[in-house]
Write a structure and sequence with these properties.
Blueprint lengths: L1 H8 L5 E4 L12 E4 L14 E4 L12 H21 L4 E5 L24 H13 L7 E5 L15 H10 L17
Parallel strand pairs: 1-2, 3-4, 4-5
Helix pairs in contact: 2-3
């Protein structure tokens, strides 16, 4: 939502794909299209750029690990197929810092090797590789981001959202292992 609002402010036309729920067209959104984007995609216009934020994690899907692993790869492959067939120029992919796995040092770079990667992180690595395949007709940029912060405090993740909510409600915040580099934030 925040990416869409920013694009609108800067006068970009946008097309939003959402796999969760339907909304009516809003005046500030030129097109809104709702479907399961892991299936074949049909759109009323062909975008030049896709910002791929879609994904399913254990937070969203507490069933079997393979469900969200497969769904993430299916979503990305569907977007890749659409982009290749329709001359999309670029795909920006919001991957995840989970692709690094267990982080053992204070600073990481994209040259660092992954270590003990969970199923979610493995799905993101496969998505990145598929997006960066040289046979694709588009350019792609993959961002490995930690939990994305939002103004929407109705969520319970990432960790900072919980902390912000507690601060706003003047609740006690307990800190465990304050000298540990465990939390990447």
């Amino acid at each position: 939502n925040e990416i869409a609002k920013n694009l609108q402010k800067n006068k970009y036309n946008k097309l939003i794909l959402n796999m969760k729920f339907k909304k009516k067209n809003k005046k500030n959104i030129k097109y809104f299209y709702c479907k399961d984007i892991s299936k074949k995609i049909k759109l009323p216009i062909i975008p030049k750029v896709i910002i791929h934020c879609a994904g399913v994690s254990k937070i969203h899907n507490k069933k079997v690990k393979k469900n969200y692993f497969n769904k993430n790869v299916e979503i990305t492959n569907s977007l890749i197929n659409y982009a290749n067939k329709n001359s999309v120029e670029k795909i920006f992919f919001l991957s995840s810092i989970d692709a690094y796995g267990f982080i053992k040092k204070a600073k990481i770079s994209e040259k660092d090797k992954s270590f003990r990667v969970n199923a979610y992180g493995k799905s993101k690595i496969i998505c990145e590789k598929n997006l960066c395949n040289k046979e694709n007709t588009f350019k792609s940029i993959c961002f490995r981001v930690p939990g994305i912060l939002t103004y929407n405090l109705n969520k319970d993740h990432p960790l900072l959202i919980n902390i912000i909510k507690k601060i706003c409600l003047k609740e006690k915040i307990l800190i465990f292992n304050p000298k540990s580099d465990f939390n990447n934030v």
